[in-house]
Amino acid sequence: MLTATQSVFIVLLCVLLTLVFLLLMRRFWPSSQRREHNEIIGWQVSVLGTTYAVIMGFMLYAVWTDFNSAEMTADAEANCLVNVYRLSEGLAPAERDPIQRLARAYADAMINEEWPAMNEGSLSLNGHRIVQQLWSTTMQAKPASLSEQTSYNHVVTELTNMTEHRRVRELQSKSKLPGILWTVLIVGGVITTLSSCLFGTENFKLHAMQVFSLSLLLALALVAIADIDRPFRGAVHINPLGFEHARDTFAESKAGFK
Fold this sequence. Notes:
Layout: H1 4-28, H2 31-34, H3 38-87, H4 93-119, H5 125-139, H6 146-174, H7 179-196, H8 204-228, H9 241-256
Helix pairs in contact: 1-8, 3-4, 3-6, 3-7, 3-8, 3-9, 4-5, 4-9, 5-6, 7-8
């Protein structure tokens, strides 16, 4: 849920603080005095680095899996809406037209209201209202033939699926990593990065470059986890492409009947 500017600032700040710590370490504990401890420090960094790499890899996999799941849920919701619109063609005009009108209104509400609201951490009340109207309108329909009854049954099924996907999406828009896991990630990153500064080397520039590379990599990974953790917010987020496609489909269908 970070903006691009915030992400860049956090990465630069982490790298800068690490390099400042390295300079202070060099001043108050010269590298010549640290060299005799390199064997112990190397063992420590190796264990810490391996442990932290496993933890970070798991977190990245978890948030990316949740991100993909949320994207599939949003697309499935839009697909069900398109199916409701198309299947309603089998109903009488008096019952078909209100359903299709509400389907178009729902797609517009998702694009213009719901997604901006989710980006702010909330939900659109208008979307919920339209779903209730869709259910009310559908339940009031009275099929007059077997073919209409078949279409009606399919409309109810797709509307049920759409409502379920909507509820799942609402939960996914509010889900996030627990605070204890963020504590592990941040503390582990700090300990791993600062431990790499303890090495005593003759070539300070090379050591500084290695510390810079490590701190940059860890900061980028943490920023990526923070952004992907909230799939509908931040610089990297799920777009309402499914509903935009649905709106285009409705426009083409409406134009085809003219």
